[in-house]
Specification:
Elements: H1 5-10, H2 19-53, H3 55-90, H4 95-113
Helix pairs in contact: 2-3
């Protein structure tokens, strides 16, 4: 439905550039976006073709990823447990919690001694 003359008069002017410049920018942006899409798609296909056609390459990549995950989880667990034990050792001086933790540490020490 077209605007009436009254509506055209009340219509606010565009705060951005003119329609021609905006259209040119949109076309340039679309071309750039298409180019980026082509580059990522083609690169991904080459990568997939390289890795999934050679069985040795697949095994090597998956083995390296598994080792990296295992080492990362081991280091992360060690850091977490070290922080936890440090915090617990600092909490021994607390009245209620400290007694429980002291009992727990005594139990662990007795178990180690046997």
């Amino acid at each position: 439905m077209p605007l009436t003359k009254e509506q055209e008069k009340r219509k606010l002017p565009s705060k951005t550039r003119g329609d021609e410049k905006r259209q040119e920018e949109n076309e340039r942006f679309e071309k750039l976006l298409d180019k980026l899409e082509d580059m990522t798609t083609n690169g991904r296909l080459k990568d997939m073709a390289y890795h999934f056609t050679d069985k040795k390459e697949v095994i090597k990549v998956n083995l390296m990823a598994g080792v990296a995950r295992g080492v990362g989880m081991t280091i992360g667990t060690a850091i977490f447990l070290a922080l936890l034990f440090y915090i617990l050792s600092q909490a021994i001086s607390l009245p209620v919690v400290g007694e429980y933790i002291a009992e727990l540490m005594d139990t662990v020490d007795n178990y180690r001694g046997e």
